[in-house]
Amino acid sequence: MTDTKESTIEIREPPLYAPNEIPAVSKRWIPGNAAKMVSAFISNWTPFGLVASYFIFSTCLYTYCSESLVAIFWFIYMCTNFYIAGATVLEAFMSITPCREARKTVTQAEERGWLFPTAHDQLLVLDLLIVAYLPNEQDIIMDRALYALEQIDYPSDKIRINILYNTPRSIEPLETELHQLPLTYPHARVIKVPKSTSKADNLNYFFALDTGSDLIAIYDCDHYPHPNGPRWAVERFMADQEIDVVQGRCIVFNADENLLTSMIAVEFDKIYAVSHPGRATMWGFGLFCGSNGYWRTSLLRELKMDGDMLTEDIDSALRAFSRGSKTVHDLNVTSYELAPTTFAAFWKQRLRWAQGWAQASLKHLKMVYNKPHDPLHTNYNRNFSARFGVLSLLVIREASYYLVTQYFVLTLSFVLIKFPTSGKELWKFVYFQYPVSQWLFLISIICLVATLWITNQVKSEFISRKMIIIFAIQYPVYLVLMATMGLYGHARQIVKYSSWNPTARS
Predict the structure, then answer these.
(1) Record: fold of 118-341
(2) DSSP string of 413-454?
(3) What single DSSP character describes residue 272?
(4) Among 11-20, 296-305, 354-363, 490-499, which stretch is predicted with the lowest mean pLDDT?
(5) What does the angle CA 2 – CA 238 – CA 367 come to, to the nearest 5 degrees?
């Protein structure tokens, strides 16, 4: 651990111009600036044009296809969507075991009077990082920092709460208040990262510091880690020396704010409590998801974060897996976060995720077929299950965006060619255009119901059964929306869109 006197690190930057002090030359029209504006406009709107053209062309194409050809397409889309639904429900059933183990662990701890197996003086040294972009998160950073410093239940001589932030302009008195935290809390460290423009820059700056920690935990600024979350994570490392990463469960706590946040909250419960632990059990590998993740310090400092990736967290997780590192999902390591409250914020967030996943998929697709090699894991070799899991995660998942949207536009073409005159005809056109689709559709519905039933068994305290029912009813619309966002992410990757749009926090 570093000395208390060195716990505040600040590098001053040159003062910024006030709005009325900007040099006159910057206000003049410059041809180069105009060219940049035109280029930015084209970069922003080309993906929209590509996605719109995709939908229009696909719909028109199906209206001109013969009935037999349309039947073939229909069968292909129904079968592939059935596979996706089947894989999802299999992951859900595979998640039952880790859910039971997590509950069993809690019961055992409760029976022991909440005494954890490891003595305080034998615990690993932990650096807990809270990463923030101040203009975007200036309203919440002090609250989250004080919460972490006061509420996390871990020996203060074994943990350091690090507030890493970057800002393009000085924000006072907030910054002064932040840098005064170590005076009250000796286990606090506040770092203003110079020349940083992203989360990756903030993290890589910290990784270059020698803090003497055994583990590093990463949290986005909007998170409230459960007071016992760090202890549960460290106990996993103590119990299994082969574990390199522990990914916890992220829970949305503003679920009741509006319909959008409630749907995102259900989705997060489905992902973090069901899909992630189920996939790890089924395919044999887990993934770091960006926040509420704990790493062995030596591994994280070696891998670092790739600032060229929009989702540097997924990239680092896949790079860790490619070299044989072991990642586990622990449902007791919980953290509470905010969901976007407006559709505009949600749209920006998911487009960044979609493009980031496309980048990561292209970069790491080779794991499906290449031979792993790492000097630290000489005996590691990906088996067929792990390789097929990578194929499902990086290829089939990305391809599903096209399968879902093609099914949608094919159905739309039916409506355009012969518009239904009654509800019965509409039902037949949408779902039972061909007899075999009755069975595929019904089985897919059963898979969805089973997945959400399992989700209901492990839902967080902020989720109601009514929210899950509403989520199930509107799921087809939500599925098409998410697939469209996936296509948009692909289109952005094609035009090499590179703007980093942080999610608005308040």
Answers:
(1) Spore Coat Polysaccharide Biosynthesis Protein SpsA; Chain A (3.90.550)
(2) HHHHHS--SSHHHHHHHHT-SSHHHHHHHHHHHHHHHHHHHH
(3) I
(4) 11-20
(5) 95
